[in-house]
Amino acid sequence: MKFFIDTANITQIKEAKDLGILDGVTTNPSLMAKEGIKGDDKIMEHYLKICAIVKGDVSAEVISTDYKSIIAEGKTLAALHPNIVVKVPMIKDGIKAIKYLSEQGIKTNCTLAFSAGQAILAAKAGATYISPFVGRVDDSNWDGIQLIAQIVQIYGIYGYPTQVLAASIRSSLHIVRCAEVGAHVVTCPLDAILGLLKHPLTDIGLEKFLSDFKKSQA
Ligand code: G3P
Hints:
By secondary structure, the protein is of the alpha/beta class. Helix content is 55%, strand content 17%. It has helices spanning 10-18, 29-34, 40-53, 67-80, 92-103, 116-125, 134-139, 144-158, 172-180, 190-195, 200-217; strands spanning 2-6, 24-26, 57-61, 84-89, 108-113, 129-132, 163-166, 185-188. The longest helix is centred in the last third of the chain and has 18 residues, at 200-217. SN-glycerol-3-phosphate (G3P) is lined by residues 6, 26, 28, 31, 133, 135-136, 167-168, 170, 187.
């Protein structure tokens, strides 16, 4: 399972990268706004900054919602850097644009997916990734992990190459559950990644090993 970080925060991206386990980055307009990145030039500059740090796919989201504009915006984003993946919303024009962009050899990430039906359409259109939003599905009293499992199963039956990129990850447990059901990628906040390190018995055990070592040296 690949690990992406779901942020536009450079410090956090660097911290995850330094851990040695980072495979890519996903951003969205909300995450860019959170970092105060405004205006086309600054936005493009920021994507390039991220691409210079991480050697892996970097999702950059379009803000257009009609076919022609999504394609124009997608081409501009894709031309920025070979690792840019054009993130396109799961809407009718989005699916049409994904079909077109994938035929042009441009990588795409179909975002805002909340059902298996939407995931089937994205795969048919040739999306590189489908992003089902685990946490937001949970928020609406449905089972986000069950949705990931369902999509992984369907893609497996038909051999669709589209990768299931579990998004809207809220906890370390989400990451483990995504691994259990075969998600190809998880995109996570830094805290959820670092949370995987934690176990009280590790801390207790390490303290004991170190104090026994000190005693043996006294
Ligand atoms: O990758 C999508 C993600 O950023 C949404 O997360 O926590 O806003 O549902 P969240």
